[in-house]
Amino acid sequence: MSDNFIKGIAASDGIAIAPVYLLTEPDLSFEKQTIEDVDGEVTRLDAALQQATEEITAIRAIAAESLGEEEAQVFDAHLMFLEDPEFTGQIRDVVKNDSVNAEAAMRQVSDMFIAMFSAMEDNPYMQERAADIKDVSERVLAALLGVKLPSPATISEEVIVVAYDLTPSDTAQLNKKYVKAFATDIGGRTSHSAIMARSLEIPAIVGTKEITSQVKDGDLIIVDALDGTVVVNPSQEQVAEYEAKKDAFAKQQAEWAELKDADTVTADGKHIELAANIGTPKDVEGVLNNGAEAVGLYRTEFLYMDSTDFPTEDEQYEAYKTVLESMEGKSVVVRTMDIGGDKELPYLELPEEMNPFLGYRAIRICLDRQDMFKTQLRALLRASVHGQLKIMFPMIATLQEFRQAKAILEEVKQDLLTQGQEVSDSIEVGIMIEIPAAAVLADQFAKEVDFFSIGTNDLIQYSMASDRMNERVSYLYQPYNPSILRLIKNVIDASHAEGKWTGMCGEMAGDQTAVPLLVGMGLDEFSMSASSVLKTRSLMRKLDSKEMEALADKALNECTTAEEVVALVEEAVAKANQ
User: Fold this and answer.
1) Could you count the other beta carbons within 10 Å of the beta carbon of residue 220?
2) Helix/strand/coil for 307
3) What is the DSSP letter of 274?
4) Catalytic option among 192, 366, 386, 559
5) Environment class of 17 (CB within 10 Å of its CB; exposed 0-12, middle 13-18, buried 19+)
6) Distance of alpha carbon 494 from alpha carbon 433, whole angstroms
7) Do 153 and 172 contact (CB within 8 A), yes or no?
8) Residue 505: active-site member
């Protein structure tokens, strides 16, 4: 392979060719200096404050247009500090009284304010202002040092974003009109940046290990997210080669698009429900455009992660109502708040833990912090009259947890009815199967739940004792391992024995190697990134469900390794494609 190739993990299909926008933290280090021309230094500080104000005002305008007024309001707090004479006046006083450079004065005063606000433990709103001060002070320092601060919201030309990693707030700022793809140093197919890329329907390669050190701003690169290759400063011949590959993929997508309104049926006529996963109400557009028949997973934690404080009951109600109405009577499975692990809230104090993935998270927080849980459940139940709502509890390990969560839901429902609030009487209540203990005891859970949805991202890492974000043990993240397949089959069979249904909302549901096996195992509903729906529908139409049943049986009972399973499926799919 040529020297200008970098390999990574293909996380979101597609090909893009554009200049690099390097989203890395700049060096804001400086030395404290004694200043003789104090007035000149104050003038330099004022110019930096003015530049920061203009930049934040511009970012706010762009954010309001692309993300909405509510999202843009976070920048109002930043502007407030820059206009606050108490804050800026103290910086000027330090420059004048101590004869120090503006950078040193800025750092001294901002650190004092950050410490002061951080100490206000009884006032979460004021504690959050510490983060605002930090953002503002970094922007002013960057202006003083002549360094560019990256800001994804201000991108206004076609680029490929390159970063060490992308946070949910970074990806929320990406405007896919201009951001044609992204590539990161770390991450896997199930990391949040990868999931968000599929929601945005832009090509993405993660886990390259080195891309931020191998490119610079403005370099032309090719992201081939069909096979996980980045080409740095390609030759004209390479550009032509990948343009042709890009056109061929677009043609393939156009063929899939013709299936948008088609039924999802196997070659022998068995209907299977194809649903899509969403993170925000805005994602519903992609669900409908890609012909999904339902929302199989609404990740409500993004409501919390995109906010500077706990979203109110009314704010949540409006979001859930929007999704339910937009789906026009099609099923919407809403997962209650799944915070913890790698999803943190700055305004929710969570304990430091050795292993947060196995710690205080999801339903465990909700059962402990019932005020927060009841607010979400009230909003969901109020919204239930606007569509076909199904509620799903995440991270359930024991029957007691499910019973307690369901009892709280019932209590909230009765309170609403007593207040004269209308609530749907046809809400199904289920659990996410992501803990092996629940998968093994599925026959008992199936007597009490209305449905299961298998979250393979966590089920696999918990079953294999392999952190899916740890590259050293990533070889153990094996969706096709016979042990994982047996757990999945156990859950499906247990639900069917009680007349219930099982869906899957983990990434495995849209995995083209896993789909034939899951069809054979009798999975009722497949929920995936909207961008995977049409190619999965195309594949399913070529599969005979009876033949897939025999294939799954062979994989479960005769294969001993994931590699054997993959070889078995590849042979069956090749035959189906003939």
Assistant:
1) 15
2) coil
3) E
4) 192
5) buried
6) 12
7) no
8) yes
Q: Tokens in use for 484?
A: 């994982």
Strand partners, 71: none
Q: Which of 255, 12, 263, 45 is nearest to 140 (CA)?
A: 45
In angstroms, the CA 399 to CA 431 distance is: 10
For residue 374, what are its two tokens? 């009841």
Contact, 324 vs 386, CB < 8 A?
yes
pTM: 0.74
**How many CB atoms within 10 Å of residue 412?**
22
Cα distance between the two ends of the chain: 32
Q: Which of 78, 366, 386, 505 is catalytic?
A: 505
* Helix residue spans in 9-84 (DSSP H): 38-66, 69-72, 74-82
Least confident among 308-312, 383-387, 515-519: 308-312
Give the Cα separation of 380 and 426 in Å (integer). Answer: 13
Question: What was the pLDDT predicted at 554?
Answer: 97
H helix count then E strand count, the chain: 24, 16
* Euclidean distance between CA atoms 543 and 523, whole angstroms: 14
Q: What is the pLDDT of residue 1?
A: 43
Please list, in sequence order, all residues whose beta carbon lies within 8 angstroms of the beta carbon of residue 152, skipping any fewer than 6 positions away.
Answer: 21, 23, 161, 170, 173, 174, 179
List the structure tokens of 551. Answer: 């294939």
